[in-house]
Structure formats: structure tokens, C-alpha cells
Amino acid sequence: MPAVRPRYSKEEFARRGDQLYQQLRPQLEPGNLGKIVAIDIDTGAFEIADDILVAADRLLVRYPEAQTWFVRIGHRVVHRFGPRAATETT
Length: 90
Description:
Layout: H1 10-28, E1 36-40, E2 46-49, H2 52-62, E3 68-72
Antiparallel strand pairs: 1-2, 1-3
């Protein structure tokens, strides 16, 4: 599968992704906290999975040209780098 080239600046990509996630959030959060959502920022289509690659693959099967934005449902970031307290959740 050929790589999909970005059609937007990083800032526009993030703005669109964040805006779509906020719109979809009430629909996504119940029963899916901690899972990954892959959102096509052009169509608003999305896929939810426990793993980022699974969510991306499912979305790309449906929309091969998807401009994909990833969010861990209920969290501010998909991945966290560095140390954190064992009891910290977000």
C-alpha cells in the first residue's frame, strides 16, 4: 500500500483532528476509555481499536487516502514518554 502524503500543514492537521475529536467525543467515550480512535480528518470517518495499527489499518481499508488523526479516548495524548507516577492515569 503506497504511503498517503499529508495534504495539510501540521497546524491545520492538528486543528482539524482536535475539532473532529471534540465533536465525536460524546459518541466515542462510553465504553471505550483508553482505546485508540483513528479519525479521517477529511471525512470524519473513524475506527476504534485497542492498538493504533489495528485502528489505522481498519480505517485505511475503508478510506485508502485517509488523513488520519489518532487519539487515546479520554486522554490528552496517544503515547507518553518519560517517567510518571504509578497511580497517574492522565
